[in-house]
Amino acid sequence: MPRDRSATTATLAADERAYLEELDHWLREETGYQAIQGTKPQTLAYALTDSPVGLAAWIVEKVRTWSDCDGDVERAVDRDTLLTNVMVYWVTGAINSSFWPYYARNHAPWPITAQRPVTAPTAYAAFPKEILHPPRSWVTRVYTNLRRWTEMKRGGHFAALEVPAALAEDVRAFFREFR
After folding, report:
1. Is residue 100 part of a domain?
2. Nearest to 150 by CA among 167, 165, 137
3. 56, 73, 106: which is the final residue of a domain?
4. Is 62:33 a contact under the CB 8 Å cutoff?
5. pLDDT tens track for 31-78
6. How many domains does the chain have?
């Protein structure tokens, strides 16, 4: 889509325009990690496996940028939890395997499209500081059996670390109808 979208976005709803603005920002400012993990994952994996400080910096930067913390990481994830997360990657050497889905995604077609919709019962938890906020109308084009859409009060991309109780309750609420 061209940089000046005024002509092409004039007919879109406000939430659709907002999403495209978020997406434009994301693509310009936040996809460097995708490029390296999707093309040269092994190089980065060796560097981060060799340096616990580098690994911590890599992970903490993502948590700081993509969580509901307003720049103070410990507002979203306490220090012990964050260090435990870094240590799990460090001790197991799992940073390497965590990159390979990006490589696979970069070298194969995206499996979920409007032409091949997901018909399984689906729920969506919309966290205020998530990276992107897709319009519900667009989500339902692909996830055709959307049963639950929850606007969460707090949280971002790392919701399971940031607000685990709220996320767990939303998951439980979704599955109650299937008992």
Report:
1. yes
2. 167
3. 106
4. yes
5. 889 999 999 999 999 999 999 999 999 999 999 999 999 999 999 999
6. 2
